[in-house]
Amino acid sequence: MPLIYITGNSGAGKSTIRKELQKRGYEAHDTDENGITCWYNKQTGKKVEKPPELKDRTQEWYTKHDWRVSRKRIEELVSRAKDRSVFLCGTTANENKVWDLFSTVIFLTIDIETLKHRLATRTNNEFGKTSVELRNILSQHKLSEEINRKFGAIMIDATQSVPKVVDKLLDYAERRQD
Question: How far is Cα 88 from Cα 139, in angstroms, rounded to an integer?
Fold first, then answer.
C-alpha cells in the first residue's frame, strides 16, 4: 500500500485536508508535527529552534535556516503503509530528497488571491503572518508548482470545497495502487 504525499504552498489547505482524511478514517500525518521536520542551520547542518517571537523571524534568519524533513521518519511511515494507505501532508525545503519513498505526490494548487486571503484569515497557524514570511511564500508560489509538475506530481485545484479535494486525491491515490 502507498505512502501518499500531499504538498503545496503554505495556505493551500494541507492541514485542513489532513483533518478531513482523518475524519474519513485514514491515517494522515502533518510534517509540522511529531518531529517529522525541524529547522536546520544551512551552514552547520545542526537543528535549531525557530525564534518564538515574530519580530525575530527576519529575512536574514530565514536565509540561514531550512525546514527539513527527516528521511528516517518518512521511512517509518512507509513501513506503516504496508496494508493501507498512509498520508503525509506538508511542505519542506528538502522534500525532493525523500520523493522516492512516496508512491504518489499530490500538489494542491491555489491562485494568489485565494492564497493571500487564506494566510490573512487563518487561525490555526501563524506562519505567513509576518511581511517577511508572506513575501517568501508568494515568491515561491509559482516556482513550487512548476517544480512539482516537473517531477510528476498530480495537481489538484485546492480552491474547491474540502470534500471535493479529498474525493479527488483519494481517487488518484486508488488509481495509482492498481
Answer: 24
